[in-house]
Amino acid sequence: MRLKGYFRTLGAIALLLCSRLPIDAAEPIPIDGGISPNSKVAVVVKADEDTSQDSVSAGNDQPYLENVTTKKIIGPLEEVNTTGGGFGHVLENVTAYWSPDSRFVAVRYRAGRLSEDFVIYQIERHFGGYRAVPEKLPDATIGSDGEKVFAGASHAANMGDIFDRWLSPTEFTVIKYRFFPPDPPTPYSGYFDGDGRIEIHYSNHAGTWIVSGYATPPALGTAALPLPIEVSSATREVSAKIRYIDPPHFDLTVRDSAQHILFEKQEILPEAIATATWTDNGHFLVLMTKKGSNYEAWIFSMQEQALRKLGEFYPREAVSNGGSAMTFYHLNEPTNPYVGSASVDPVVLQIDEEWKKLK
Asked: For labelling, which of 4, 88, 209, 311 has a CA lying 20 to 30 Å from the CA of 105?
């Protein structure tokens, strides 16, 4: 009898120990936004399939980088914890935001009931594969003038940093929240909004991240600004960068091949710009705007530094075709005078001649 009781005790201990061993999920699951734009790698988690569960399998409280092609786990992103401080489920607690060129990924995660944080990783080639290297960001509490941005600013509990959006492959914004304007006022007081938030801009220069500015965040519930558009002429002699200030207002900056600013101009268009294309000679910039299900073409003249509407072309795209010629490819509605009934045929226009007609 004593022997039977002894074995029963051993069995109970063994069962208890086995129940505490790490249990690996069968299939890694990509998180929201996890797959890179070039579809090479993905940020995944090993979560319970039942998303109503508040826990994850032991040892799986961090995301991983996965090779999309081979489905092999590259390694853990150790700086990120997906448990949410004991709140929520792993699939709800972490989100990925990739830079447009797939070089960087921001992993935003829940750090507590009401607090958030993020980590920026650079994706590098490594021995024929990939690896994720955490990036070091500068101290955003000190402005370029040496002033303390948050000096005298009060804050509520559960403050944090929310990764907001990529502005370009090397620029992004972060919203620091639950802070309130400094008292007495400082040069940075005007950037804090009534909801206790301030927007911080980061940019990468020669491999180093810097704080490039501060701004007042868009009002809560306001859609994020469209991403900037950067486009060079065929000869690379001129390039343009279009950045929205407050739609429909945008800044147009044109630089020469040495990156010297030729001019900066603020313009207004009725809708967001879908594409921008230089004529091959670099004299005109053709902007395509999407208006509902339709498209409009606009011409910007380098010489006159002026913007004029060419017409409602309904094109899929505009392609430079030598000199000042531009080819427009159309959708299937014959609704503009240049196309007539042959709506699917491309139309070649001499932009310099069209510009003269618009005067």
From this structure: 88
Beta strands at 171-179 and 155-168: parallel, antiparallel or unpaired? antiparallel
**CB of 259 within 8 A of CB of 275?**
no
Q: In whole angstroms, what separates CA 101 from the centre of its chain? A: 10
Alpha helices for the chain (secondary structure H): 2-19, 90-93, 351-358
- Structural contact between residues 295 and 288, judged by C-beta atoms closer than 8 angstroms: yes
**Structural domains for the chain:** 19-215 (no CATH), 229-358 (2.130.10.10)
Query: In this structure, what token pair is assigned to residue 219?
Result: 């009002």
Whole-prediction pTM = 0.56
For residue 248, is the peptide bond before it cis, meaning its omega torsion is within 30 degrees of 0?
yes
Burial 88-116 (b: 16+ CB within 10 A, else e): bbbbebbbbbbbeebbbbbbbbbbeeebb
The residue assigned the tokens 């489905």 is: 71
pLDDT, tens digit only, all 359 positions of the chain? 455 554 444 444 444 443 333 334 447 888 888 888 888 999 998 865 544 444 444 446 789 999 988 889 999 999 998 887 777 777 778 889 999 889 999 999 988 777 788 999 999 988 878 999 999 999 888 877 777 887 777 766 667 888 988 888 889 999 988 777 777 777 788 788 877 788 899 999 888 999 888 888 876 656 556 666 777 887 768 888 887 766 667 888 888 888 788 888 888 887 777 778 889 888 999 888 766 556 778 899 999 989 998 877 654 556 777 888 887 765 434 444 444 444 456 778 899 999 998 87
The percent helix, strand, coil of the chain (3-state, each to 5) is: 10, 45, 45
Q: Residue 275 has which token pair?
A: 């594409």
